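Hi all, long-time lurker, first post. I run a small reading group and we've been trying to get comfortable going from sequence to structure in the token notation. Rather than ask abstract questions, I figured I'd post a concrete chain and ask someone more experienced to write out its structure so we can walk through it together at our next meeting. Sequence below, copied exactly:
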Amino acid sequence: MGAFWVRLRRNWFRNLLAMGQVALAIAAVTAVLADVVPLVRAGSVQEPTRFTVSFGVRQGFATWWAPVYTPDDAAWLENEAESVAAATWFKSDFSSGIRVGEQRYLVRGQGRVDLGFADVMGVRVVTGSYFTEADLASDVPRVALVSEQLARTVFGTTNVVGRTLNVRPAEEAWVLQGSGRPVDAAAVLAAPGLDVEIIGVFAPPPGAPYLGFPGMTPMEILLPVTAADAAGSEGDLMVVAEPGMEQMLPEEVRALLTARVAGRPPASEPLEGRLPEVLLDEAMSLQSLRQAQLQSSQLLGAMSMAALVVAGIAMFTTTLANLAQRTRYIGLSRALGATRLRVVREAVAEAALIAGLGGLVGVLGAYPLRQVVIVPLTSGGLTPASVEAVDVVLVGAVGVALAMLVGAVAAIYPAWTVARLVPAEAWREGRL
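-- Answer (accepted) --
Happy to help. Here is the structure in token form:
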């Protein structure tokens, strides 16, 4: 081992260049692996298939909606449809206004939801509690849940249970946005609004940047469906398919709801020249988003492997140059009884150690590379996958082992070539 360090210092610049190329390649490979392993782990959990149920007209890529579903439709559909495991009703609004003390804020969106919304949508209550039957019995909302992001932005903490915020009229968002709609700004800003008590803080499903699927309004505030909402407020539905009935669900739900809403005014009023109809779309699941993320990681992985091949070529030329300077020593060793296998083994071990040192440096540089380059390129609307301690250890060990393997494979041919030299010829042509 001492001789290895002596030789490493003697050719330090050449070895340092080879180690640097290995470090860069391993940093890239490890950064991709650190992003892929958590995705594979998360993707192994089977998610239910969800469908958004709306009512409107679709022409090409454009869709026009006519709100027609009431909160009662969700419970009715869950009981009547054999293919529906769970259903929920919600009504989301773009750009809501809130006031805390004297400070006003513009929120991306809020939603009126029922009791089943949390389970169907995968909402996680991280502090406090979700709505109860008593919360839905009031004529107007008295309580609310807020997102973690909103709690930190407005209050600076997620410990906000028991705090009060004022939900502003929808027109105030228009005023704050400067939309130019014909409203009395002074009257809107002076309106009392609706005071609600925060009973919980929620987080979106793991990996999602916000609560809401593509095409839905991001929800930062959840308000309970009230008795007045149940009487006549229209919104949308989200249903979860029974396992194995994903293909059957659209046809069954469409037939049931078409008959149920036939007598409601929006169902008989033309929209864009056509009568609206029940529309079902499979919601883009986190599983499909992760699959897209994995596909984008494959390209980066291919580029990383190309860098690893270049690093292997660098190790090949470095090993060849190092051995060319030691042919006399190798010839003397052969003359004293060293076998060719021993010569090859020592040369391969030395190259593996040099590459391993480079791999260790690359593993240490993988995390900043992942945060700066890999995550922005592959997130695809998802929040970065959480990397657990076991992933760090596993990926780090794989990175160092891969570097040593590259160094060893790259050194086999140069080592075997030198080991085949006749001792006398090696003594004449080389040096110690």
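A couple of things your group might point at:
Residues 104 and 130 are 25 Å apart (CA to CA).
Residues 50-283 form one domain.
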